[in-house]
Amino acid sequence: MADYSQQIEEIEEELRKTPHHKGTDHFFAKMRAKIARLKDRQYESVVKSKGGGGGGGYGVKKQGDATVVLVGPPSAGKSTLLNDLTNADSKVAAYDFTTLNVVPGMMVYREAYIQIFDIPGLIEGAQRGKGRGKEVISIARGADLLLVMTDVERIHLLDMIKKELYQAGIRINQEKPNINIIKTLEGGVEIKSNIKQDIDNESIKLVAKEFGIKNAEITFRERVTLDELIDSFSPNRAYIKALFVVNKVDLNKKFSKDKLPLDTVYISAEERIGIDNLVETIWKKLNLITVYLIKDDEKLHFNSPIIMRENEKLLNILPKLGSTFEEKYKMAKIWGKSAKFPGQEVPLTANLSDGLQVRFI
Ligand SMILES: Nc1nc2c(ncn2[C@@H]2O[C@H](COP(=O)(O)OP(=O)(O)OP(=O)(O)O)[C@@H](O)[C@H]2O)c(=O)[nH]1
Ligand SMILES: [Mg+2]
Q1: pTM of the full predicted structure?
Q2: Any alpha helices (H) in the chain, and if so which ranges?
Q3: How confident is the model at residue 56 (pLDDT cuts 50, 70, 90)?
Q4: Relative to the CA of 80, which ligand 1 atom is closest?
Q5: Which of 211, 228, 298, 325 fits a disulfide with 177 by CB distance 3.0 to 4.6 angstroms?
Q6: What is the set of domains in the chain, with CATH numbers?
């Protein structure tokens, strides 16, 4: 395996020595893209050697309606929390690295099956493979929601975790940059943007070239930073929602919440303080909704719920019913919040809403 870390380190060192000004803009764009490319290759080689991404080298399968992963430093109380929330029995102890593998648990809330993964602690340098870093990060990439967790005594470690995740290509609570890249056969790189960009066209072309793109139409629909531009070329970026959790509030009631996001959740996993609020916040962050399928011969009811996501459409229900259903229906009757009147007939491209009752016709 090529020594990517050393190459990355050498370029980073060179950038540290180079003054940043207009005259060195192009050099920086090119080198930062080069680093991103090397990190992608490094990641790909690790995934290959460990046999599969997403579920990761641990060979755990995603199940249920959504997957939540607990990330945090050793001894933050991740396993204690998993045991609170699910039927799992993950080992808890007062020393670091008690958990050495992925321990799955299932939480049932409002009829949704939410899978929760407890994983080994994440330490500084994880992204380069320290501790069980690579495996931990590959599990985290598969999450629908990350619970980024520390305890009252070590709130500063949230920044370390954020940094490690970022370095590993995970973008938390961030939208994918609105840039459209269409590869073409000839004509060089054509750049279209209605919004003035801070990055000049030459830098954009240099970044594209680093990623092996010589001909393309690149359309910007928003103003982006150089990092966001590089992100949009990289195949290994994961955009994942995160919720910050501070544990062990029983130990210290007077810690400062100043630098923490407003929606941070404070708990004591051991004394079960704040757990109900945490569960409700997880549910909200996942944007899950419940819809009810009404068969041809049935009256309206709220039995056999189907868990969907807020941004999905009626047609996204069909694959869950079985392969033969996708051809069969073209319309649906709906009852509930998003129906203009009870039993409104709508096309399958109509949006879902929580509590909606649906009869396909
Ligand atoms: N006071 C207090 N202690 C807690 C709380 N939650 C967990 N602990 C203790 O903290 C220690 C570590 O808990 P674990 O749940 O094993 O932590 P972990 O994050 O899974 O640790 P690793 O598996 O090593 O990464 C244990 O001694 C727990 O009893 C809490 O809310 N309050
Ligand atoms: Mg543990």
Answers
A1: 0.86
A2: 4-17, 25-50, 78-85, 133-141, 157-167, 201-210, 226-233, 275-286, 318-321, 325-328
A3: very low
A4: 15
A5: 228
A6: 4-50+177-233 (no CATH), 66-174+237-286 (3.40.50.300), 288-360 (3.10.20.30)
